[in-house]
UniProtKB/TrEMBL annotation:
Domain PAC: 100-153
Domain of life: Bacteria
Coiled coil spans: none
Location of the GGDEF domain: 182-307
PANTHER family: DIGUANYLATE CYCLASE DGCM-RELATED, REGULATORY COMPONENTS OF SENSORY TRANSDUCTION SYSTEM
Protein name: Diguanylate cyclase
SMART domains the UniProt entry points to: GGDEF
GO molecular function, one term: diguanylate cyclase activity
Transmembrane annotation, as ranges: none
């Protein structure tokens, strides 16, 4: 951030318009105090124009000359990120209309650098209770938000495979099933004879088998599916806007890729089961149950062939 610069004199007409009791407020003294704080503190009039700002930052278009000032300018005039400038203006107008302050976080990407800014705004009222402006505070909270997102990812992700975990499946079922996503197809998958692999070659080989199975799913499905490790060697894939024929073609591709995959010289073997939901009438838990049953039926058939 660059320290506040420019003309230090206040437009008395603006002050009278704002109905301050004292038009001779020493803004330079106020700014001198406030700019020592790490946060960016600003004040806007009822037209959403800046009257002062303790710091300039790289999110605005300005020059470093003494003649340039933020005073009298709006976010739409000076912000590089026009989407967030519009959001700032909309939040300002809402605050001026309702008299209720707000707090939110925005994501910006300026000059290739992503930052998260926390914006806090409150109305300023005169002695008669009339709103005369907006006081705001901007904090850079990038480290906090990145840590929060990292913790959320840890809570939703299976560490061994990098796929989503069962906990995130519960969230997805509650929040992501929407009419425009149908038909939705479910693929249940399970590594074959993993107990035999663990007993014969050791659990480290069994773990490698699980990781290889997860990688196969990622390689074939890429961004087509939301993928979960349900526990042990069980996996679940949800494919939106995918009908019965499409999902069967995908399973065929998974099987072809599987035939080319070996772990420590051991062929990777996975059983699959599918179920397609045509509309929201079908319960997703029931669809998962059907896909599981079909997957276990395939496992049994493979087991019988080996006998």
């Amino acid at each position: 951030m660059t320290n506040f610069g420019g003309d230090k004199t206040m437009d008395v007409g603006l002050l009278e318009e704002m109905d301050f009791d004292n038009a001779n407020i020493d803004w330079e003294f106020i700014e001198t105090i406030l700019k020592e704080l790490p946060s960016n503190i600003y004040f806007k009039d009822t037209q959403c124009r800046y009257l002062f700002c303790t710091h300039y930052w790289n999110h605005i278009v300005h020059d470093d000359t003494e003649a340039w000032s933020i005073r009298g300018k709006t976010d739409m005039e000076i912000r590089k990120d026009k989407e967030n400038a519009r959001k700032a203006y909309e939040e300002d107008k809402k605050l001026l209309k309702t008299g209720i302050g707000c707090k939110y976080v925005i994501e910006t990407c300026i000059d290739g650098v992503t930052e998260f800014l926390e914006i806090i705004k409150n109305p300023v009222k005169n002695k008669d209770g009339r709103i005369i402006g907006i006081v705001g505070l901007i904090n850079i909270v990038t480290d906090r938000i990145k840590l929060q997102k990292q913790l959320e990812a840890y809570a939703q992700t299976d560490i061994m495979t990098g796929l989503f975990n069962r906990r995130y499946l519960e969230y997805w079922e509650e929040n992501e099933i929407k009419p425009q996503y149908f038909p939705i197809s479910i693929i249940a998958a399970d590594c074959d004879r993993l107990k035999h692999t663990n007993d014969t070659y050791g659990h480290h080989v069994g773990d490698e088998m699980i990781r290889s199975a997860a990688q196969l799913l990622k390689d074939v499905l890429a961004d087509q599916a939301v993928m979960f490790r349900m526990g042990g060697d069980e996996f679940l894939m949800i494919l939106t806007n995918t009908d019965e024929i499409q999902v069967q073609n995908i399973v065929d591709r998974l099987r072809e890729k599987m035939k080319q995959t070996y772990v420590k010289g051991i062929p990777l073997s996975i059983s699959f089961g599918v179920c397609t939901m045509k509309d929201m009438i079908t319960d997703i838990e029931n669809a998962i149950y059907i896909a599981d049953k079909r997957m276990y039926r395939e496992k049994e058939e493979k087991s019988m062939l080996k006998q």
